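Crash report, auto-generated. Payload:
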Amino acid sequence: MNMISVRSASFSYDGVNVFHDINFDLEQGGILCLFGPNGCGKTTLLDNILGHLEPEEGSIIIDGKELGRYSHREIARKIAYVPQVHERTFPYRVIDIVVMGRTPYLSPYSSPGREDYMIAENALEMAGITQLKDRLYTRLSGGETQLVILARALAQNAPIIIMDEPASHLDFRHELLLLETVAGLVEKNNLSILVSTHSPNHAFYFENRGLPVRVAMMAERRIIFMGTPGDVITEEKMKRVFNINTKVFTGNGAENSKMKFIVPVGAANRGDSGEE
Amino acid sequence: MKFKRIILALALVFAPFACIVLSAFLGRYPLSPVEIFHAIVNRLSGVAPDVGTNIVWEIRLPRAILGSMVGASLAVSGAALQGLFRNPLVSSGMLGVSAGAGFGAALAIVLFHNTFMIYLFAFLFGILAVALSYMIGRIYDTAPVIMLVLGGVIVSSIFSALLSLIKYIADPYVELPSIVFWLMGSLSSASYKSILISSIPVFIGLAGLMLMRWRINVLSMGDREARSMGLNINLDRAVVIICTTLATAGAVCVSGIIGWVGLVIPHMGRIIAGNDNRILIPVSMSLGACFLVIIDNLGRIITGGEIPLSILTAIIGGPFFVYLLKKTKGGGW
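Recovered output after restart:
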């Protein structure tokens, strides 16, 4: 069953095309990694799917229904969102941040109740940060904050989570914590994840764990390659899109499972910045 | 935990009433506590009024009631706008309501010499200023919050310039002093009539903000995140702006410009009760009401004359705020 279907979508800002002819499906319990150079239109595409922007042409179907026919509240019950960096402002308690995920279930002028707090506590547990519950979130590290925001998305109880480069500001450990949590959500809760990333090894991480993951490589304002990480993240395609030389390795992980990963070797013809 | 909350709620409700009752005992006309007690009972039992009864019921009480309404409005509007703009330095006058009201009042002072027209013009121009800021904010809707702030700055400076123009052409012996005093804020025109006039917009605004207080939390996460959590952000933002504008314009039109309350009372609330708007909004309401009533009492009794409110709010509030900051080590920032 497809949770997201995008059909020949295109979008322009003030007459300048950002992407065109985008097609993909994301099934329930699947992961789609949106991968591509800076400025290739990943974030704009995500904004279209979140309903913040409207595609010029084409259609976006969320869980069997045209995106434009959802209300603000309804779409928030289908899709939760984790930004690249959450800009912290006021020193709220962690639990009060997480319970904000319950907003699409509250009637317009009410506040979250006991049940909402229980769901929020459960979300903290799923994100593995129960111990942060009563802390002021302005005093957390960037990595902890990102897990709080993930917990907030979980409290939203949506079948789809969209993440925009969620690990780009995290240290090695927190990056792994985030990936593990996301993998667990797909395995145990059958959530669908659409994630944009700059790290091809994220896609390999999910593939190495045996999860149904596909990669959509964006360049030239469209998706030029689509398939399993093994098919799309190859030395040849990385050279074509990023103009870099890379090496893909396969090693043996725990219990003799195969592990694939990619290592950058060097920039090909420097001064020439990739595909465009 | 629950017990603590009930105590807090009771304290929030009763503190302003306590301040208002206290005000009945304070003032320059010498009345002993016994006489004041008599005055309160006299009116309630319908005995013909004497001087004491009139002073308590027609001067001191309406003034304290109006003060509590004005203080509550300014403080809550400031807290709500700080959340909306995700900026702790925002005050209730952010979108130009004070500048607009100041111009409106000055215009009415020059044109009509009539208290009711001053209320009306101050109120209408306060609303007009915010409407203009909002329209400027909509010109380029990719960054609505920054555009709104810019709109507020532009509109405020235009109305300040227009106000200067009116001061320049006003009669320097009668009109100019009235304008200057109005701009420093005072509750001396308080009466049950002015309470009634002001209470309609103030009540609508405060009630609306109480209902929106959870959504202000969510809006303070930023547009993109608030929208992804199911808010119709343009609508919700407009509702918050309309409510803060009604409350502030309704207050300012009868009291004149009162600085500081709409910026710093919310921070006192943040220090005391935290940043969750569900608690912060009612706490600010109560604190703002108490603060302004107390300040007004001090203004009436410190000297033989009356010290304008904006002078005292800052002189007394400033050091007190620094004390609170020091005591709580910054309160979580």
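Post-recovery validation: Chain A has one domain: 2-228.
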